Structures
1.
Amino acid sequence: MADPRRAAILGGNRIPFARANGPYARASNQDMLTAALDGLVARFGLQGTRLGEVAAGAVLKHSRDFNLTREVVLGSRLSPSTPAYDVQQACGTGLETTIHVANKIALGQIENGIAGGVDTASDAPIAVNEDLRRVLLQVNRAKGVPQRLALLRKLRPTQVIPETPRNAEPRTGMSMGEHAAITARQWGITREEQDQLAVLSHRNLAAAWSRGFFDDLATPYLGLQKDQNMRPDATTESLARLKPVFGKDGTATMTAGNSTPLSDGAATVLLSTDAWAREHHLPVLAHVIDAETAAVDYVHGGEGLLMAPAYAVPRLLERNRLSLQDFDFYEMHEAFASTVLATLKAWEDPAFSRDRLGLLKPLGSIDRSRLNVTGSSLAAGHPFAATGGRVVATLAKLLAEKGSGRGLISICAAGGQGVVAILEAA
Amino acid sequence: MKLRVPGLPAATPLRRYSPDQPLVDRPVLTGSAPGARIDLRWIPLAVTSHSPLAGEGLAGSGPWSAIIFDATGIRDVAGLSELHAFTAPAFRNLRPSGRLIVLGTPPEDCTDPPAAAAQRALDGFIRSAGKEARSGSTANLIYVGAGAESGLESTLRFFLSGRSAYVSGQVVRVRPAKTPPTADWTQPLKDRVAVVTGAARGIGAAIAQTLARDGAQVVGVDVPAAGSALAEVANTIGGTAFQVDITAADAPERLADYLEQRHGGADVFVHNAGITRDRSLVNLTAENWSSVLAVNLEAQLRINETLLERNVLHPNARIICISSTSGIAGNRGQTNYAASKAGIIGMVQAMAPAMARRDMTINAVAPGFIETAMTRAMPFATREIGRRINSLNQGGLPVDVAETVAWLGQLGTAGVNGQVIRVCGQSILGA
C-alpha cells in the first residue's frame, strides 16, 4: 500500500438552509441534494466527470430512498459511472462522509470524491401504524383467500393513525432537547450565556453573508438566497422574551431561540488528492488531518446525550500531540447553545477531565473569538445530515482566507455519538 | 415569438447560424471597381462579375446568397457609378435573408478629398440599401484599412452567415493587426477561456451558450442571488459558475484571482451584466442613478483596470462590452441607463489604442429591441412599436447579440477594435 496521503478539501456547495415547512416544503431529499450537487458541479466544472465516489446521507429518509445518494448522482450532471453510497450517523453524517472520502483518498483508493448530506423535516417519511403494518405483512404471507379475509377482519380504525418520526431517543423516549436540558442543568449553563451564544451565531452568520463569504459556498434554491432562520437583528433582549421549551421545572433555560429549529437543506464538499487538484487547476483550501468518533452511554452511564465530542476531542488531540489551544478556528455544531457551552465547560473542569476523561489536567478554555466565526447551526439552521458538509466547507474556506493555521470541528449526534476532526490550511 | 399581428405585415423569419450549415448555400455574386484590394476568390460558390451585369447575362440570375462589391479602389464620384451599375440589377435577386456587403477604404485614410467623398458616400448608400432590403436581407459596409486585407475573413464570414441575422446598416472598420490563423471555422473559439458576466439569463445566457458552441471554455459570472440559474447555464454548456456581485469592492480582485488560479488567465471577457431602473429624470432617485451606473459602467471600468494591471488577459484577448441603442439614441425614462451605456462606448474608444498595443481588442455591441423577459413585460403597444421600427420589421433574439459577441471574440477579428456594432435590425433610433 502506498504511504497515506492527505486529502485536500477543494470547496463545497450547499443550498441555503430553510426552516421546516418553508420554501423547501415540497422539495424531497433527492431534490435538495441534487441541487446542492449540481451547484458544486457547476462551480468546479465537473460535468460528465467520473469521480471516485459520492458519499452522503439523510437522517429522515423514506424507505424508497434506500439508495438516495446513487439516485442523486444519476440525476445530476456528474458522470453516471460515479459510484455512490449512503451513510447515516445522525447529525454526524455529513462529517462522517467527509472522513470516509478523505480516508479513501489518503489510502490511494480514490483520487477524488464528494461528501455531503441532506435532510428535510418538511417532507418527512410517515410510516404506517405498527399494528396495521403487522397485519398487512401477515396478509401478505397468508395462503388462500379465507385466511386473508380472516386477517383483514383484524383491522381496527385506530390502526389508521400513522407514525410520524420523532426527534426522540428510542431508548429513553426523551427528545433531544429534553436530554440537552438535563445536561445544561447539570453544568449550570445559564439562560443568558445561551442567548449570548445564539446572538453571536446570528451576527456572525449575517456578517459572513454580507461580506460575500458564502458566494462560493452556497447556491440559491427555490428562491431562497440566504439561510432563512438567520436573524441579523437578534439581541439578547429579544431572545430573553422567549419562553423555555425544554426542561420541566422553573429552572428551564432552553428556548426556540437558543435551540436549532427543524430545518431543510443539503450540503456537499469536494475532496481530492493534491495532485488531482493541481492537474485541474483547483486551489486546495485545506487538508483533512485526522478525525475521531466517540460514543457515550447516555442510557445508563450517566453521561449527557450530546456530550460525546467532549470525549472525542481529547483522544484526537492526544493522537496528534496538540493542545486544545493550538487551533485558529473552532467549529462547534450548535445543536443547542447549551451543548456547546456544556462541552466547553467540561473541558475546563478538573473533575470531569480526571474522572471521565482520565486526564491529569483539563484541556482548558478556548479563545471564544475563534469559535464559530461565521455563525453556526443556531443561526443557519440544522438539516441534520447537511450540517457536516456546511461546517467542513466553511472551515476549509476560513483556513484558506487566513492562509495558515488549523481548525477543529466538533459535531454531536443522536445516539450519544460525537464526530470531531482537524483541518489544516493548505 | 409571435410574428403575426393582425393589420401589420408579417416579418420574415431570419436565417440563423448553426455550425453544420455551409457558409452560403447559393451562389455569391462578387464584383469590384478598378483598384480593388480584396481577394474574394476563397468565398464558396462565388461568381465573379465584370460590370455591367446585363452584358454577362447575370442580371436576371440568382437568387444570390450575397452580393459583395469591392469598392476599395474607388477614388472619385465617377467611380461610384460602378457600385450602382453592379448592385442595382442584382439587389432584387437576393434570396431571403440575403446579404449585400460593400467593401471600402476608410474615408479618414483618404488624403484626397474626392476619394474621401466617394468612400464616405458608401456609408449613405449602404444605410439606404439596408432600408430597402426585403425578406430578411441585410446591407453592411466594411471599411478595410490598407494592410488589413488578409485579416478580413472572420468578418466576411460573420456578415455572410446567419450569425449576422439581425445586423444591418452597419459600418465596420477592419484595421491592420496581427491576426492569428483560425484552424477550424466551426470552432473559432476552441480552447479560449471566455468570461461572461450576467450569464444566468437572457442575453448573457445566450452569449455563454454561443461561445461554448464555438469551442470556448466558459466562465459564467452572476450575482449570488442568480446562482441557481447560473449553475444551470454552466452545467448545460460544460462551463463553470462564479458567483460574485461585480460592484463589490473586492470583485475585480476576486475575479482576477479566480481566473488566474483556475484558468491561468482569460482570452475573452464579455461585460454583459446590466440593470435598469427606469424613471423619468424628475422622478429618478439618487439610488436609481448610482446603482445603474455602478453595475453597468463603473464595474466594467474597475474590472478592466484590474485585468490589465494584473496581466490576467492572454495575448490576443478580446474585451466585449454590451452597450445599447439607448446609449446611442437615448430613450425616455432611461437617463441613467443611457448614460451608462453611452459611457461604455467612451470607455471602449479610450481603451482601444492601448489594447491594440497589446495585440488585444475592445469593442462594444449595442443591442436594439431584443426579445427577452424584459421586453416581454413591456406594454403591448410599446413592445410592438419597438419590434417594428427597424429595417427587418421584427425584434432580434438574444442569440443575435451573442453571435456578434462571438465574432468579436474570435482570434481572426484582430483588426476590429474600438468599435460599436449595433445589433438592432437597423433600428430607426440613433444614427
Note: Chain B touches chain A at residues 224-228, 230-232, 234-235, 238-245, 248, 250, 261-264 (CB under 8 Å).
2.
Amino acid sequence: MFSAFLRKWRHRTDFLARETAYEARGLASLLAALAFASAGKEPILILVAAPAQARFLSRIAPRLCRASCDVRVVADLPTLDQCLSDVAGQPTRVLLAGELYARFHARLAAEVRAGTLAVA
Amino acid sequence: MKFIKRSTRQQPRLSLILLDWSVRESFHLLQYLRQQTVPRDAFEVIIIEYYDRESPALREFAGDVDTWLLLEMPRDCLYHKHLMYNAGIVLARGDILMIGDSDAMVRPSFVAAILDAFARDSKQVLHLDQFRNHRRDLYPFSYPSFDEVLGEGCVNNRGGKTAGVLDTEDPIHRRNYGACMCTGRADVIAIGGADEHIDYLGHICGPYDMTFRLVNRGYREVWHESEFTYHTWHPGQAGEDNYQGPHDGRQLSTTALEALISGRIVPLVENAAIASLRRGEAPAEDVLLARLIDPEAVRRWQAAPQRATAAETGRAPDRLIYRGHTLERRGGTWTARPVLAAPGDLYEAAELARVKAMIDAAAPLWLAPVSAAGSLFMLADRLWERMVVDRRRAARAGR
C-alpha cells in the first residue's frame, strides 16, 4: 500500500516537473525573442502564450520589449480572434512559442501566409 | 530484402501497412481483421519488418498476411519508420492506404468506416483516434472485451469518444496521430511519400509528417467521430528508452511542425523509389524495391548512437530555434536571425557553437534572471493551480 502511495506521488511530481519544464522553456524562448526584437518594426505585437506564461508575460513583457510597440498578450483562441480583429489593417506581428503552434495553427494560417507570424 | 509472402490479391481497395522492427510481441489487429463486415478481398495486409526477424507472434496470423517483407537492415542501424512507410507505399495495391498500430483492437466496422469515408470525400487525410487502457493486468494481451478496455484503466474515454477527438484546445498533442492514418496512395506519392530525414530516426516520427504536408497541399484533415482503435498497455510503449530526434518536449517532431508552420509540401529527403513513382516512371516492382534503400542513408543512421537523444549526441538539425533566433545551416555556414528582427540583423559563422556564443554575448543582462524568475513563476503557478484552485473546484462540485 505504501509503495502504491509512493508510486502515485512519484507519478504526480514527475508530471509536474515535466509540464513546468515544458512551459518554462517556452517562456524563455518568448523572452529571448522579445530581448532581440528590433526597434522600428510593426507597432503592434501580439504574444500568444500558454495561460501561465501569459500571466507572467502580461506583467513584464511591455517593459522588456526593446522595440517600442504595443504588446498584447493572449492565451486562448477567442481572445486571439478578438485581438486580431481589433488590429485588422494595422501592421502587426504575432509571436508564439513553437510548442504552441500546434494549438493555434488553424487560426494562425492567415498570419503565416501574410508573413506576420514569428515562432520563438 | 526478403519476401516471406507476396500479395496475390487482385484489386484491394484498402492497403493496411503494419510495421515491426523486431519488437512486436503481438499482432492481434489481424485477429480483429478476420471479423470485418466487408469482404476480405476489399483490403490487403502488408507487414514490413525493418530487420530480418520472422516474428513468431506473426506466424499464427501468417494466413491473414498478404505481403510480408523483411527489409534486412543491418542490426546496428536504428529503425526509421518512414523508410518502412515508403516500402509499404511502394508495395500497396489499394487506392487507399492505412498506416497504423498492429497491436490495436478494432471493431468489425473498422475497414467499412474507412472505405465509406473515402467514398464520400477522397481528398482527405482520415485519422482514427485510439482509446488507451493502462491496466497492467491486461498484459500479455488476452483479448479483453471492448467494454473492458473502455472501462477501468482507460485514460481517455469521455462518454464513448476519446478525449482527443473532443479536445479543441490542443488537438495535435492530445490526439494519437500514429494510431491510424488513412489517405490516397496517389496523393501520398504526389507529396513525395514519407520524409526520410535523419530527424525522424527512432521514436520521434509518425504518419503526421505526411498529414501536415497533405494539409499544406489543400487536403482536409478529418478525425473520425465514431470509429476508434483500442490499445492496451505493454512494456516499452511510448518509445521508452528509444533514440529520439528533435521534438517539442511532448514527443511531437519539431521538423514536422516546421513543415506545418512553413507550408512545406515536399519532404526534406525523398525516397528514390517514391520519387520514381511520383515522376510517373512506373518501373517494375523489383526495380522500385532496388531503389528503396539508400546505402548512404543507412551509413548515417548506423552512425547515430543507440539510446540517446539528438541533443545528447550534439548533432543538430539544419534549422533550429535558439534564444529568440532562427538558426539555419546553408552550405557550410550557420546563420542566425532574430525571430522579431529587421532584415539585416544577422550572425554568421561556420560552426553552430560559435553562432550560439555570439547570441549569448549579445543577450541583454536581464534575460537570464528574468527567465529564471519566469521558471519559478511557472512552478508556483502550477502548484497553486494543483493545490488550491483544483481543490476549490472539487469542493464546489461536491457541494
Note: The two ends of chain B are 65 Å apart (CA to CA).
3.
Amino acid sequence: MSSARDDILSAVRRASSAKRAADNSANDIATGGPILPARAQGIPGELRNRFCEMARFAGATVEIVADRDRVPGAIAAYLSREAPGDRLVLASDPQIVSLPWGATPRLQVRPGLPLADDTASVTGAVAGIAETGSLLVASGAATANALHVLCETHIVLLRAQDMRGSYEEALAMLGAKMPRAATFITGPSRTADIEKTPQIGVHGPKRLHILLIDG
Amino acid sequence: MIMDAAPDQSSAPDFPARAAAALADPTLQGALTKLQTEFRRDRAAMLGRIPEFDQLRDHATAIRNHSLAHLDELLEQFETNVSLTGGIVHWCRNAAEACETVTGICRAVGAETVAKSKSMLSEEIALNDHLAAASIEPVETDLGEYILQLRHETPSHIVMPAIHLNAGQIADVFREAHTDHDPARYLGDADALLAEARAMLRQKFLDADVGITGANALIADTGSILLVTNEGNADLVHSLPKTHIAIVGIEKAVATLDGAMAVVRVLARSATTQEVTSYTTLVTGKRRANDADGPSSFHVVLVDNGRSRMLAGPYAEALRCIRCGACQSLCPVYGAVGGHAYGAVYAGPIGAVLTPNLGAPGGLGAARHLPQASSFCGQCEEVCPVRIPLPALMRRLREDAFEDRQITVAGQKWIAAWGWAAQRPALYRLGRRIGILMLRILAKVSGGTIRTLPLAGGWSATRDFPAPEGGSFVELWNRRKRRESS
Amino acid sequence: MNAEHHKKITDAPQVGLFASCLVDALRPTIGFAAAKLLEDAGCIVSVPERQVCCGQPAYNAGDRKAAAAIARQTIVLFEKFDYVVAPSGSCAAMLRVHFPGLLSDDPAWALRAAVLGEKCWELTSFLTDVRGVAAVKSGFHSGFRGKITYHDSCAGLRELGVRKQPRKLLASIDGLTMKDHSIADVCCGFGGTFCVKYGKISTAMTDAKIEAVLATGADMVVAGDLGCLLAIAGRLSRRGDRVEARHVAELLAGMTNGPPISGDG
C-alpha cells in the first residue's frame, strides 16, 4: 500500500521530469538573479528619499530623528498628537529598552509581550526597503511577533544605515537562519472588503509611525 | 467541494439560470460596475508607477515554470527544510484526506476554536464544514470571509470575497449574528461596521487554540511559507495560537526566497493594484527555543486534489496561477454576472479552467458551461501576471467537449455543419446564396430590419439584424473584374 | 528574395483580399471599400473566388479537425500572394496567429502556415505599417461630418496590436472629430456564437459598450470587424438609439452613401 506521499510524489515526478526532459531553459532562471525595478536601485540619498515617499504613499508616517537619544521625546510628541495614551509595550531588544525613557516620565513603558489592551508598541526594523517604502521586521527572542500586529499604533525604529533598495537586499540581512516570522510591513493594516471602500486599521495597526534615526 | 453539489442535478440551477438571475439583480450589478470601473482606473495608475511591470511578469512566469518543471525536487526539499525547523509536513491526495488531516491535528491538541485567515484551498476542500461536524468552531478572520461566514455564503472573487455585497447587507447580517449588541446601535457606514468586526474578532484571535492559514508560496530552500494580507489577520493567526497549520496546494512551491519575491512583485499589483500588501510574511517553522512568542507546533498540509494530474496534462500552465484574481476583475463576462453565477469555488476565466480539472477526475460534466461562456476577448491573458494562456486553455476544453459527444452544447451540430460546408467551396457558395436570399426575404417581410432570426433566438431576443445588401462580395467583385477586362 | 522581386513587391504588391464570410454575405460595400483603399495604396488586388470562412466558428467551437481542414484550404488559396489583407482583425488573427498552431502536427503544413501568417494583415494596419499610408486620399472624404468613436475589436487589438493605425487614418479625414469612449478596448459581447449561446450576458456587455458610446455624444461608432458592428448595431437598433454604425473601411474610402449597419437608416 503506497502512502499518500508516495502517490503524490511519484505522480509529480513523472510529470515534472517529462517537462525537464522536454525543455531545459526553465533551469536558466535558477542561475539568473532577481529582476530589480529601477525604484529598487540608487545611491543612499536617493533610496532614503524614495523610502520616505513610498512609505507615506502607503499610509505610514515617517519622522526623521537626529539621534537615538531623541527617540523617546519624538514618540511622546507623536502619541500626544495622534494617539492619546501613555502606555507603550516595547520589544525586549536592549537597544530599545536602553533608550533614555527617563526623559519622558509621562510614558509608561514595559518590554515584552503585548496584552489585549495595549494600544501602542515599539519595535525595531531589520531594514527599510526603498522600492515600496516597506520595513522588514523579524520575530525573535527580543521581539514577539505580536508586537508587529496586535496594537492600534505600531512605532518602528529604523536606522538610516539599514536602508536598502530591494526586498532581496533586506532579506540578505537576516543571516543564515530565518526567524520564525520575517515580515515586510508596508503602511498600516487595511481592507476594502466593505463596498471597496478603503479603510485603515482592521485587525492590525491603524497607525504605522516610522522613526528614521540618523545617528 | 469544487462545485456546489446538488442532490438532484436536473433541478439544480445551472450557469445560464444563475447568470440570468445575476443580470436581474440590481445590487449585484451596482457592485460589479463599481468593481470594473475602479479596477481599470486603478490598474492604469499602477502600471504608471512601475514601468518594468511586463519584465516582472516575464520573470514571475519563468519562476513559476521552473517550479512546475522541478516540483518533485522542490517539494522534497521543502519537506526536509520544514522538518529541520521542527515543523511537520503532511501529504494529502484529495479533499477528504486534507480535511481529515487538519481535523485530526486539531483534535489531537484538543482544539475548540480555530482562527482562520483567508484560504481559497480551504473553500476548495470544504474544510469549515468538516471542522464544524467535528465540533471544532472555525472562525474566519479576513473581514470579507467573516461576513460570508455569517451569511453562509461562499466567496464570489478570489481576493475580494464579499465584493458582491453592499454595506446594508453587511449591517443586516451583523445585527442578526452579533446578538450581544444593542439592536438599535448605529451601523450605517463602513467605519461602524469595521469597528464592530474588529472588536468581535479580536477576542477570537486571542482565544483560538489553533491558527489555520493558507500560503501564497512554499519556499523549498528554507522551508518557509509566504503569506500576504492587508489586514494583518494572518499574522495574528500564526502568532497567537499554540498550533499553526498551513494548508497549501502542491503547485505553490518555488525554489528560493528570490523566487518568492518575484511572485510578491506581481501579486498585489495584479490583485488589488496596490504596490504590495501591508503584511508580506515569510513564516519558517515553529517558535524557536528563545522566541518571545509563536506557536509550539507548525504543520504544513500539502494538498494534491487533481494538481498532479493537471501537471501531466494539457492544462498544466494553469498551475502557474498565483491566485491574484485579476482575470476575474477584468473579465467582461465575470463583470456581467459575478462569481456566484459560476457555481464553483473558482470563478471567472481561471475558474473555467481549474473547475473541470481539480478534484476527482471526471472532466466537464456540471462545469460544461464554464469554458463556453467566454467571448475569448483575451483580456484575462493580457493581465495574467504569470501569462497563463486562458483563452487557449478554454478552447482546449471546448475541443474536449466537442470530442465527447455526451456533452452537447447548444448549436454544436450547426457549427459542425458549417465547418463541413466550409470545406466544400461549391456547397458553401450555394449555401451562401440561399442564406443571403432568405435573409433578404425575412428583412422584406419585417419592413427592412430582421426582428426574428430563425435558429438564433439568442440574438433576436435582444437585437435586430440588418438586411444583407444583396449578392456575395466575392462573386460581385470577380464578375466586375471579368466585365472590366473583357 | 532577390532585389528585383523585393522591389516588385514594394512598388505594386499582389494582395489577396480575404473578405471574411460576414462581409462577403452581408455587406459587400466593406469589401469594395477595402479593395479601393488597397488599390489607392498601390496594390494589385485579387479576391480568390473559392474563399470561404477562416474557420473561426469551427475553431472556437472546439472542432479542430474542421478548422485545420479549412486552414489548409485557405493556405492553398492565398499563399501565392505577396500579402493577404482582411477587413477584419479576427480573421487576420486567425490566419496569422492561429493557423500555425492548428497545423503544428505536420511540419510541412506548419511551415506553409507560418509563411502565410507572416503575410497576413488587418486592413488599417496594413495600410499604415506596410504601405506607409498616413492619410486617406482627399477625394475619399465622405459627406459625413460629425463625431465618431472607435471600438477596438478584441482580436485585432490583443492579437495583432491594432489600435493606433485606424485612428491615425480616421484622423486624416476632414470634418471628422474622434472621441474615444471609456471602454473602447473592452469586448462588445459579440464573441462569435457566444452572443447567441449566452445572449443575455452578451447583451449586457453590448449595453455597457453602448452606454459608453452614448456618453461621448458620438453620431457614429466605427470598428474594424463586422461581427462587432452587427452586435452593436443590432442592439442600437432594437434600443432605438440614434447612433449609426459603420466599418472603418467605409469611412476611409468615402463610401458612406448607403445605409449604415444599424437596421434602419
Note: The radius of gyration of chain B is 26 Å.
4.
Amino acid sequence: MEGENKPLAACAAQKVPDSRPDPAGLAIRTVGLRKKFVDKIAVRGLTLDVPRGEVFGFLGPNGAGKSTSVKMLLGLVKPTGGFAEILARPAGDVETRKRVGFLPEHFRFHEWLSGEEFLRLHCRLYGMTAPLISKRVPELLEVVGLAEHGRKRLRDYSKGMLQRIGLAQALLNNPELIFLDEPTSGLDPVGRLLVRDIIREQRRRGAAVFLNSHLLSEVEITCDRVAFIKHGEVLEVRDLRECAAGELSVTMRVANWTQDAAQALARWASAIRLEGDRLEMQVISEDFIPEIVSQLVSRGARIYQVSSRQASLEELFLRIVGTDGGL
Amino acid sequence: MRGIAVIAGLTCKEAVRRRVLAASVVLGLAFLVLYGFGMHLVLSRTSETVLRQPLIRRQIINTLLVMGMYAVNWLVVVLTILTAVDTIAGEINSGVIQAVATKPVRRWEIIVGKWIGFAVMLTGYIVLLTAGVLLEALMIAGQAPANFGRVLGLMLLESLLLLAVTFRAGASLSTLATGVAVFGLHILAFLGGWVEEFGWIARSQTAINIGVLASVFMPSESLWRRAAFDLQGPIIGGFARGPFSIGSVPSAWMVGYAAIYLLAALFFAVRRFSRRDL
C-alpha cells in the first residue's frame, strides 16, 4: 500500500503544509496573515511558504485579496492578524527592503522625471553608490529595451514602456526577492516574452519571484509553484514542475459501474462524474491511469475506451476557485 | 538621513520641473514691480508739505510697507497651501508613493524630507519677496521697514506652520479635503484676528477672548498680526489706527505656542503617515 501511495504523495495538492520548511531558507513565510478593513475582510488567514530561488504564482479572482496580501508583505498595509516574514525578517523591515524589488500593479511613477532620472532616483533610495548607479542604470535600460528612451519623460511613455521601466526599477538592487504585480498587463507579446526571460534570469541567479498575475498562460510557463486563493485564503498550492499545469482530464467509457468502484476511484482522482457510460475525472499524473484502470477492472467494471488530455491552468483555476469570481 | 536628503531633493526638483517655482517667482516679481510703482505713485502725488512732517511721512511709508508685507503674506499663505496640498494625499491616492515607500526609506523620512524640501523653497521665496519690498522701500522712500529680521522670521514661521498643518491633513484626507481643511482653518484664524482687533477697539473682552481662542485653535494669523505690529515700529504702532494697524498684539507666548503647534502638526503628520495603509 505504501508503494501505491507514493506518486500521490509526491504530486498532491497541498492545502497547508503539515511540516513547514526551515524559515531561514524561505523568501516568504506567512502564518494566518489577516487584514480586516472597516467594512470587509480582505485577507482571512494567509498561510504560505515560498522558498528562495522559486518563481511563485499567486492566483485568484478579482477581490480575492491578492494585492492586499502583496501590500502586507511589502509593509504598505498593516496586517490585523497573523504574521509575515520576508527573507527571514519581519515584513516591512526597512533594512530587508534593500534586498527586495517591487513592480506595483498600476505602475504610477513620478511622470515629470525621465526614465533615466527615475531609475537614478530609486537607486539613491536603495542607497547605492554613484559608480554603481552609473553602471546599473544603463544596464537595466538595456535589459528592458528602453536604452533609446532613457531621456524621455515618463509622461511621454506608453503603458508598455511604463511597465518596462517599472520592471527595471524592481531589479536595480539585484534583489533576492521580487514582487511582480501583474507585470505583463500592459505589454504586447514581445514585451511578455521579455518579462518571461527576465523572470527566468532572476531564478537562474537564485532570486525568488512572487508573481501576481491574471494571465494564466504566462504563469503556467514561468512559475514553479502556484497558490490559488479566494476570499483571502489559500485554497491549494500546486507544484507545476512535477505536474506540468497540474491535472489530466481523463475520460472513459465504462460498463458495470458499482459503488465499490466509485469508492476505489476517489483515492486516485477528483471531480469524478458519470453520465451514461461516460466517466470523467481529473487525475494528478498519467502514472495513475493504469492503476485506476486496474482498480476498476478488479471491481468488476468493464472498460471500452480511455482517453486523457492535459488540463490547462485555466481549467484548474476554474475548478479550484470556481466561476463565481469570488466577489 | 540619506532618505531625507533624497526626498527633499526630489521635492525641489518636482517644483522646478512642474514650473511651480517659476510661476511663483514670476508672480512674486510681478507683485514687486506693481508694488514699487504704487509706492512711487503715492509718494509722488502726496504734497511736499505733508511729507516734510517726519511723523506723518513715516506713518505713510509705514502703512505702505505694512500693505506690501500684507500682500506678500497672503501670497505666501496661498502658495504654501496650494503647492503642498497634493504632495502626500495626491501621491497616496495615485499610488506613486508605493514605489517609494517600499524602498529602504522610513516613512518619517518621507514626510520630513518633503517638509524640508518645501521649507527650503518657501524660505527662498519669502526672503526674495520681503527683500524686494525692503529694497524698494529703501530706494523709493528712503526708509527701511522696522524690525525687518523679526518680521521675516515671523512670516517664515507662519508659512512653515501652515506647511506642517497641510502635511498633517494630507496624511489623512484627500487632496481636496486637505485644501478645504487648511484654508478653512486659516480663514477661521484670520476672522478671529479681526474679531480680536474689533474687541480691542470696542473694549469688548468677549470679542477679544473669541479672537484669542481662534488663535489657539490655529495660530497662523496671530503670527502675521505680530509681524505687522513689529513692522510699524514702537511709535507709530502705539497710536495709529487703520485696516492694517494692530491694536491687540499677540504676545511672545503666542509665537512660542505657534512654534510648538508647528512641531506638533509635523509630529502627528509623521505618526499618521507611518500608521496608515498605503
Note: Residues 61 and 324 of chain A are 9 Å apart (CA to CA).
